[in-house]
Amino acid sequence: MSYPYQITSLAQYHEVYKQSIENPEKFWGDIAMHFRWKKHFDQVLDWNFTEPKIEWFKGGKMNITENCLDRWAETQPHTPAIVWESNDPEEHHRSISYKELLFKVNQFANVLKNNGAKKGDRICIYMPMVPELAIAVLACARIGAIHSVIFGGFSAQSIADRINDAECNIVVTADGGYRGNKEIPLKSVMDEALIQCRSVQKVIVLTRTRTPVSMLKGKEVWWEDEIKKVETAGNPFCEAEAMDAEDELFILYTSGSTGKPKGVVHSCAGYMVYTNYTFVNVFQYQPGDIHFCTADIGWITGHSYIVYGPLSAGATTLMFEGIPTWPDAGRFWDIVDKYKVNILYTAPTAIRSLMSFGLDYVKHKDLSSLKVLGSVGEPINEEAWNWFHEHIGKGNCPIVDTWWQTETGGIMISNLAGITPHKATYATLPLPGVCPLLVDEHGYPIPGGDASLAEMPKQTVSGNLCISHPWPSIIRTTYGDHERCRQTYFSTYQNMYFTGDGCLRDVEGNYRITGRVDDVLNVSGHRIGTAELENAINRHTGVVESAIVGYPHDIKGQGIYAYVIFSGVMDDKNLITQDINQTVARLIGAIAKPDKIQFVTGLPKTRSGKIMRRILRKIAEGDTENLGDISTLLDPGVVENIIRERL
Ligand code: WTA
Question: Would the pTM count as exceeding 0.85?
Answer without folding.
Answer: yes
